[in-house]
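Bug report (template v2)

What were you trying to do?
Predict the complex of my protein with iron/sulfur cluster.

What happened?
Run completed; filing so the output is reviewed.

Input:
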Amino acid sequence: MSESSVDRRNFLHMLGLGAGALGAGLAAPRVVAETENGHLVESESEYGGFLVEQLTDGRFPYQCDPDVIARMDDKFTIFSRNSWDPVRQESLRRQPNMTEVNLVEGEGKVPNQTRLDYALMSAAWRYSGIGDAYAWTGSVARMSGPALLRGGAWDPADLDMTWEEASMAVKHAALFFGASLAGVAIANPLWIYGTSYSPSRDDRQRTIPVHIEGERLERTPEAWYVPESMNRFISLAFEEDYWAIANSPGRLASAATGSGYSRMAITASTLAEFIRSLGYRAIPAGNGFGLSIPIAVDAGLGEVGRLGLLTTPRFGPRVRLAKVLTDMPLVPDVPISFGVAEFCDKCMLCADQCPSGAITSGDRTWEGTSRSNNPGTHKWYVEGAKCYDFNGFSCSNCKRCCPFNKPNNSWLHRLTRSIVKGRIKPLDNMMVTLDQGSGYGRQVEASEFWKMDGSASITAREKM
Ligand code: SF4
Ligand code: SF4
């Protein structure tokens, strides 16, 4: 049993809440039936029409080996390794410069890699690395003056609100600032990096410890200090444009990714500022600080599929993730299960269509395949280095072809959902075949994308 499952059960027990008292997200899903582990719910707006099991008994839709799992070192993420690992650096040196190939040698006219496609990508990434987006302290009261913070930490009772309603309000703010999905989880320390990668001129491999203890909130050159009382994660998911991802491995897929990263930075930082304005502490983070995927699973946003990414009911794996750690005592959502792992047992589409061989077609394991994996969870491990090195990091084939990515507008997708719902395993393969036969999952040419009505972008996806 994972550490977090114990925490959650204790927390529910402390609150004296019945399992059914907690809901995920903003809408109130309709309860269809009770199950052994919780209840089945349906919500078009929340879960895209999927029948979802809310796991209200403290379980998680994954298993951890407590003897193996440990806090991961930031230094071993693929992004950090690119900066210090000689194996990675040699591999990166061998990569062709795709920008040169496409824009100079190809004169900006290579299909799916044109100057127009590159311009969208370049602009989309604009705010991904914005200055102090992920700062641990903010500039509270810039607009409102010190009066905003007078009276200390905000108490929802001042407005006749419960903490459950206050939690909904914070998630509402997250969507207001730009998130597509928001959920709350009790912070499992296992998902916070044990060390922060902090290279120096003399030591490219240098790391510093991340202490979770006491009440100190500070980043120093020697260590990071995170208060134990900051024990809630708000997990944020950002939908990526369906048609741009459909262009993968074309450059538009990277534009969708970049747009997600830019929105992550803006939304996580503004949400953190909102929380600080209410008198609580907040640490916003994109890929840094901890593992976004298990945090999102704990917060009830989805499950992990064969492709190694969070798979949400509404957008499938077509999301980017960020998070905010806070001491605001928000009411946690419950994890969900909607048949992703069982479906992935049969479906090999992402493994078949991964051009780099990063996704396995084998069974789930407890051990990773590279040093960038964190072993100890039973899942499909993906080789991040292979993925990173393919095509100048512009691939999203696995998202493009995944049946869970498909918008909720076709009878075939609804039927696939009902198969997931019923766990009618013998039919799963047939549905995948039918889905592909209908043309779904093919690459959409950038020239097609540019002729589309812009109202079919992510903000109007239900029209697709
Ligand atoms: S993004 Fe492309 S290369 Fe990476 S895992 Fe997915 S399909 Fe494979
Ligand atoms: S493509 Fe198939 S196997 Fe891969 S994550 Fe999606 S459902 Fe699972």
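What did the reviewer find?
The CA atoms of residues 29 and 205 lie 48 Å apart. The longest strand covers residues 232-239.
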